[in-house]
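Reopening this ticket.

The earlier resolution said the output was attached, but the attachment link was broken on my side. Pasting everything inline this time so it's all in one place.
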Amino acid sequence: MRALRMLSSSVGTKVILAFTGLSLFGFLLVHLYGNLLAFLGPATYNEHAHALISNPLIIPAEIGLLALFLIHVFKATANYLNNRGARPDGYRMKKWAGGASRKSVGSSTMIWTGLATLLFVAVHLKTFKYGAVYTSVGAGGTEERDLYRLFVEVFQQPVWVISYVVSMILVGLHLRHGISSSMQSLGIMPDTRTALVLRTGLVLAVVIAGLFAILPVVVFFGLVR
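Inline output:
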């Protein structure tokens, strides 16, 4: 009972947000690795995708990932509404704090970039996981889903490329604040290394969002076929 009260408190909410956020960040790195295999051609890309799909642990992993995502969204929304309730009138004018303040565009738009990411994930799943099914013959001579063909087909459309790049910019803004904030909430960011962690978080956000965003661009311009 005491544990439940702790988890539902403001401190507990921040801890849950931090844990689920860093867990989702780990998944993002794995997903990025799979996406970058597109540069090695359809055989490598499809082989990796097929290995994931045929793994017996894929369903429990997807359920766990969905649970992490929903908990993160629920807690983030509840935290935002609680903060709004504590200050119903808001500020008459917002100003960026100077000096050592960590206030940034990323920290001020977390709820909105998070909700935009939620919408992006839903569309992304509809387009790829539950999208058109093409087949090809794999390295072992077995028939497997040709996700590479779908990947190229989708990103030959300018609307998809633009929406994907914009979505990745929003994801980058979310990561820019989320990484350091999560580490701070979990107590794993030493005070003497705050500046280093903040810079590292910024670099990671730019690199990860940039690598995700560059893939549809190179496909659209025919650099990956």
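Reporter confirms the inline version is readable. The beta strands are 135-137, 143-145. The chain has one domain: 10-80+107-220.
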